[in-house]
Amino acid sequence: MRRYSKWALAGVVVTTIGVLAGCGSINSHHTSGVKSTNPTIGATNTTTRSISTSGTGNNATAGAPNGAAISNSTSGTTATPTVSFPPLIQQGMQEIKGKTTVPLYAPTTYPGFAHTPLPVTVQTSTTDSPAPGYSVLFNRGNSNIGGFSVSNWETNNAVAQHLLPQNPSLYVQSSVPVMSTLDLGDGIQAKVKRVPAPGKNISALVWTEGRWTMEVQYATNAQSEGVAVAKRIVQYCHANFLPVPHSKGYVLTSLASGIATTYVSWSESQYGFTTTSSGQWNSNLSGGYLSAVEMAVSVTRYH
What is the C-alpha to C-alpha distance for residues 148 and 107, in angstroms, rounded to an integer? Predict the structure, then answer.
């Protein structure tokens, strides 16, 4: 996926390459993109495994975080850069290999990778409907703490229509009026919207960076928490590099009862990518809502 060195105001790149579509970017990451509305619908071939994330088994690499193993790959006579995938992700991808025709991509991190007070297990699935794809979910105990999925749609337009989550309460309709604006730092002005929801008092911060639309929903009386989450996302995205979507991308965070859940999706050609994670809004120890963004940043071809 193509990345560029820095985004400019109004999403216009000050180079001859074209319009910037991400929070920032460097180098080429991969050539296909990521996301399925709900890749687990009609899923088959589901398996669950529990793997130690701190061991140093035969495939562990000295110096790699949590014993992450190194995956080497070559293309023709040109060697590609060495990529490190944690053993848990390797296990999940091995379960998927041979069960899908969709190209294999995976992040090099996952929710709970840095903090694992309890074992994290991986659950994989493949599906043919509504589009061919696969997903990898990360669970701690009986709770899902995040995951990622890749799907292959028939056309670029088809994938663009399936980037948003199926549950419309997880994002703000563009028709919702703007109440005011709020400074999130780093030159970002968010629109403050009051979300119409029966029996609920919900607000949202909405801003764009290139082709990315970013939103944080929160209870109106918990604006300080919503602002803190939004500012942290802005800071992270300005120090790291999200993929450049082919058409559009979304970073959607919903804050409720102290838990923030993040949904990231973007397109590349006819491929759709999604990463998700959740955790306490003021802590990374439960997996961390930023893990979804971190996974999106690290997604690369799996060999």
Answer: 8
